């Protein structure tokens, strides 16, 4: 008798970020004063006008029925308009597939493009879900590490060194989860030209497009290299921009033949995304960006506080993140020191120690393909943020 679980599914590790968040919430529920820096989730409610659109939609019987598997036609059209408005990328509604959240878009993209053994260049540190979805599609993730010395931004030279005859695609996430780094237009143009030269697909995750600070701006790769549009998949969703993580609406934008194939896949997987959530997403993408502007002010304030407090800790080095809502400090200078009677030698052991000793939840770099770091989200209240960082500072002495 073989294993009860298939080898394909048995090989997947659980989402480290969700696991840390679940552990923190369980301790909190048990009455512990845990502060969680784990989840990538805005601490704001979804804006009222979006909630109202959902309430109205729930009352309308047409939303109680099946709708097209690839998304409500009016939402697909609105996403096309929003994409032109926000990134300058001109597309048509037939190039859009509405998915059950951003993760579903990531899965559909790889499942549609990859054959067994195809390699995907994956700049690290990377979001914990990418390598698992690549493997599920039969692909092979090839990690390309960009550390704090290069501000977590991968170079063409590094990508070229990792390219082989099996390389099919490159994944880009800017602004980045987990590092908060934002690639410059010049960097993305150089990478895009290189991908074009070698006939590679580019999958670009733009879920944090509106969360940039200071002079940093998000750039969409098919805008700076228009010739690449025929081999580009753009992933996005409403989760981060509109504080809608729980509504589960994302989308992928790709050439029409890819979208047709991915829609066919989704027709067997899930059918349509929940109509009420799609109507809420329609209100979100059709509206203005004032909600995210308000959130950004708070995130920017917390970002500066967090970076300052982290860099004040002995052995901690934190480049300034210019996008998303994460700081990604190196803690290599802390490892190997005795702390509270223990000597952590990995960032994973350090994260466990911080949770055990001062009840603060952080995600270790092992989850993102870069041991020696911690990821801390600053999408939590100012008081909790300051208190949590103060506890870590006291522990590290």
From TrEMBL:
It holds the Pfam family Aminotran_1_2. The keyword Transferase applies. InterPro entries: Aminotransferase_I/II_large, AspAT/PAT-like, NHTrfase_class1_PyrdxlP-BS, PyrdxlP-dep_Trfase, PyrdxlP-dep_Trfase_major, PyrdxlP-dep_Trfase_small. Keywords: Aminotransferase, Pyridoxal phosphate, Transferase. Residues 33-391 form the Aminotransferase class I/classII large domain. Its cofactor is pyridoxal 5'-phosphate. One of its GO terms (biological process) is amino acid metabolic process. Its EC number is 2.6.1.-. GO terms for molecular function: pyridoxal phosphate binding; transaminase activity. The keyword Lipid biosynthesis does not apply. CDD domains: AAT_like (cd00609). Belongs to the class-I pyridoxal-phosphate-dependent aminotransferase family. This is Aminotransferase. It comes from Kribbella rubisoli. The lineage of its organism: Bacteria, Bacillati, Actinomycetota, Actinomycetes, Propionibacteriales.
């Amino acid at each position: 008798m073989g294993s009860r679980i298939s080898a394909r599914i048995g090989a997947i590790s659980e989402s480290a970020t969700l696991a840390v968040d679940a552990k923190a919430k369980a301790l909190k529920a048990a009455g512990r004063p845990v502060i969680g820096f784990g989840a990538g989730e805005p601490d704001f409610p979804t804006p009222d006008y979006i909630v109202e659109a959902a309430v109205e939609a729930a009352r309308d019987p047409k939303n109680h029925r099946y709708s097209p598997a690839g998304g409500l036609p009016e939402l697909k059209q609105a996403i096309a308009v929003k994409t032109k408005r926000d990134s300058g990328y001109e597309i048509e509604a037939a190039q859009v597939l509405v998915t059950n959240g951003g993760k579903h878009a990531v899965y559909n993209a790889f499942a549609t493009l990859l054959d067994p053994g195809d390699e995907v260049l994956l700049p690290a540190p990377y979001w914990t879900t990418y390598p698992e979805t690549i493997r599920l599609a039969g692909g092979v993730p090839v990690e390309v590490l960009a550390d704090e010395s290069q501000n977590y931004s991968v170079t063409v030279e590094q990508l070229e060194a990792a390219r082989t005859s099996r390389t099919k695609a490159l994944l880009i996430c800017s602004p980045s989860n987990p590092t908060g780094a934002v690639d410059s237009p010049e960097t993305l143009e150089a990478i895009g030209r290189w991908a074009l030269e070698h006939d590679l697909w580019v999958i670009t995750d733009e879920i944090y497009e509106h969360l940039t600070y200071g002079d940093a701006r998000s750039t969409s790769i098919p805008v700076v290299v228009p010739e690449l549009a025929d081999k580009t998949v753009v992933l996005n969703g409403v989760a981060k921009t509109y504080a809608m993580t729980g509504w589960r609406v994302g989308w992928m934008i790709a050439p029409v033949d890819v979208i047709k194939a991915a829609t066919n896949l989704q027709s067997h997987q899930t059918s349509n995304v929940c109509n009420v959530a799609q109507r809420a997403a329609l209100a979100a993408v059709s509206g203005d960006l004032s909600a995210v502007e308000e959130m950004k002010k708070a995130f920017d304030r917390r970002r500066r506080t967090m970076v300052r407090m982290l860099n004040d800790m002995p052995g901690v080095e934190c480049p300034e993140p210019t996008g998303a809502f994460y700081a990604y400090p190196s803690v290599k200078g802390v490892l190997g020191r005795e702390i509270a009677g223990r000597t952590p030698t990995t960032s994973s052991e350090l994260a466990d120690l911080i949770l055990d000793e001062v009840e603060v939840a952080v995600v270790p770099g092992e989850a993102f393909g870069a041991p020696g770091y911690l990821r801390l989200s600053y999408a939590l209240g100012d008081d909790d943020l300051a208190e949590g960082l103060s506890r870590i500072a006291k522990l590290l002495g």
